[in-house]
Design brief:
Length: 76
Amino acid sequence: MGTDFHVPAGELCRRQARIQAKLQEKDIDGLLIVQRVDLFYFSGTAQSGFLYMPAEGDPLLMIKKYLPRAGGSRRF
């Protein structure tokens, strides 16, 4: 037990690309992710916070508490 679970960075990139393609297809500027499970799915962290996913460009991860622990598997 004790081993931390990490979502591979490549998988997070694929997820980001898919959601951004859908946002562009639907002509939506961006998406604010607030639900913890969705936050983990797209960022690799389940810490309390928000993730802004723009239709193009890098997402913005906003953490309410301790940023170093929020690193997940991908740089934002």
